[in-house]
Write a structure and sequence with these properties.
81 residues, 3-stranded mixed sheet, 20% helix, elongated
């Protein structure tokens, strides 16, 4: 899967994924390239996972910054009466 949201001057590429069984066969590169070129006159931008980074490098994407998002859970507390 891959999606492209087109704005004036920028295409935002999101939701890039391939099934585990077909990874490494070029499908991710093909669908990312297609989403990137929805509007060839626009620059394109995406947020890369570590897993997809080499694909985006091959397509000419340039890293601007790196950050990590953390997800944690907390024990729910019962409301006091």
């Amino acid at each position: 899967t891959a999606g492209a949201f087109v704005t004036p001057g920028l295409t935002i590429v999101e939701s890039v994924s391939t099934r585990l069984a077909v990874r490494g066969r070029g499908y991710g590169t093909a669908i990312t390239a297609a989403a990137t070129m929805v509007n060839p006159s626009n620059s394109a931008m995406l947020i890369a996972s570590d897993l997809g980074r080499s694909t985006y490098d091959r397509l000419g994407y340039v890293p601007l910054l790196r950050y990590s998002l953390w997800l944690g859970t907390r024990q729910q507390t019962q409301p006091k009466d």
